[in-house]
Write a structure and sequence with these properties.
By secondary structure, the protein is an alpha/beta fold. The chain has ten helices and 17 strands. The model is unreliable at 358-364 (pLDDT under 50).
Amino acid sequence: MHKKSIAIISNSVAGYILAAHLERSGKNVVLVDTGDCRKEQLSHKNIELPFLPAETLVRTAFDGINELLAETITLTERELSPLTVENGKVKPFVGFGDSKSVAIPILSKYNMTSRFEVSADVQQKISTLAGSLNIKIHNYAELKKIELSCERVEKIIIDGDNAVHADDFIFLNSPKELLRLLPESALGARARSRIAKSPCWAKVAFELKHPTPFFDGQNLFFLTPNQAEQNPCVGQFIQSAGASTTCYSSIWETYINSDQSEDPEYISAILRNMRKLINRAFIGIDEKLPEVIAVTPYSVADYSWIYEQRTALQPADNIIISPALAAPYSGMLQSILAAQSALDQFRAYELREALPRVRSNTLI
């Protein structure tokens, strides 16, 4: 019996999670990792808020993860109202007012009271899962082109002239890469235009190390500037137990247009404004605290139109376009949600393929 082969093209942890699901279901999986996600994203601590919104799609995605793990991750719902600071006083956060910042569409997703707490280190669990895969993995693969034949993907070319063949392909990278990988005729002019114009955000984040606890709570803080054009930010104070002592830190992040992420002067200005917001809100925070800075050029994107009009981006019958950047939120949560979304799409595709073909009796 033919064992169906599937090639996953990914530059995030979502590819490893999806590969684990498909391998478990008996598929022959090849993972084309255009980075080295096990090394770059799973082997060290990432700077991201420990935020899990208490939403159905999050619970569903973790239910899927638990199917792959020996020891399950338990989600416990908790009420934690978002806060802000006005005139030195901590108050409930009610909204961004008349802010015109490009960060608002992303930061607004964090403005909720119900959150999940997890019973285990999610990153460590997924790292172990990724290490247990028994599949072919191409790390640091350079995508050259996608070759089509008879309205199907025949192969993808990587690293010069190496060909990856499969029955089906799942593309988790940004659709903007398709503009150079596919023949121009494979995508209509409207689809190409929408891909090029779809907004994409970069995440600017940093972690501060505190010598002592500064806030006793796990609430998110939203800090807003006086000028409507400047970026607000969101952050959380974190307390973690080390081997011999308790560590105190805080993580802060905001979002900018991705095309500005390569401008060092602009990034420096964003970071300065964030530090000003923090210092103004929390009197007594040392302005010279050690910090670790991270800029993710392509963190979140708005590709909702792809899911609303599934046929709008279907260059071939046997490829599923499911960009990880389209999943809400960023970081590890984004990868978990993206893997579940792609898995759901692949299962729906398999069901359609299993349906008997309707034979036309029309004479032409």
